[in-house]
Amino acid sequence: MHRRTFLTKTLNRATVAGTIAGVINPFETGRSVDAFYTESGVSEGPESGGLENGRRTLARGMYRLEYDWWIPDHRRFRLRFPVEQSTYRAAADRSWGYLSAFDAARSSRTVARLAGEFASISPLGGGSAPADGADSEFGARLPPRDRLAAAVAFVRSFEYAVDPETKGAPEYHRAPTETLVDGRGDCKDATYLLGGILSQPPFGYRTAMVFVPEHMLVGVRRADLPEDVDAEALPGTEYVPIEATADEPIGELSRDPLLAVYDRGFEFLDCRETAATAGHLLSNPSEIDVLTRSM
Q: Which of 42, 81, 177, 241 is most solvent-facing, going by the fewest CB within 10 Å?
């Protein structure tokens, strides 16, 4: 892995402004900035239908979502979760960027309510479904390590979908509410959802976005993880990488080099990639405010 430089608060407002003005370099192409922040135009939201990891029912302005997934040791989970259609519309009609979407996910009431379900979640027993309701408790509750595994596997169970085919835009940021109802998303969307879940009780971890070439994933502060999770923090940081879309063990970084880590500000930037990375992440002018408020 290339030599890196830890970025502290010396990345000030002037530096950010200069970076944005000087270099706008998206990971994949040289598209214009406007192309990456197209309004969604969503008015109602999807109808009832099947999801790759469950099903979605819409009735009387309420989505009733049922998810079914497995963790690697072959234990099966099921979760029923309601989302108001108006909540979906409000999220879908807003234009998000990387920083704003991630920060909003970590304070979302919907995500907090979802995360709370993992306090009592446990594997299904005998192939039976849980009683109708929000929780999915069946048998003994999970220890912290298994609860983390259940949350990670939950997010990984969503269908992977690319933005041009599903949203008609080269780059679209789904808020967690959209991802939950749509039942799909890409690495950005899954990172927002998983990062939001792990930031809330019963987890309460300090989370970050981890950027590698043409990909992003979740970072969790090593000190916050259960003691029996065997994983090391990324060099030069205190964050352990967790894939939100790929079936990689916790702590594995599948791509190199590490470009950036964003928590409440940029915790880390590769010194040679600073301009290109920050320019891409901050290509929406509203993102400048998100970053500078954290300094």
A: 42
Report how far residue 221's alpha carbon sits from residue 273's, in angstroms, rounded to the nearest whole number. Answer: 23
Dump pLDDT digits (tens) for 2-41: 334 334 443 443 343 333 223 223 333 222 223 223 333 4
pTM over 0.90: no
Of residues 182, 186, 120, 185, the one with CA closest to residue 151: 120
Q: Please provide the DSSP assignment of 145-195 as one string.
A: HHHHHHHHHHHHTSEE--HHHHTSSSS----HHHHHHHTEE-HHHHHHHHH
- 95 falls within a domain: yes
pLDDT (tens digit, 9 = 90+) per residue, 61-94? 999 999 999 998 899 999 999 999 999 999 999 9
Give me the domain span that covers residue 205.
13-293
Q: Which residues contact 225 (CB under 8 A, 6 or more apart)?
A: 148, 205, 231, 240, 250
Q: Is residue 128 part of a domain?
A: yes
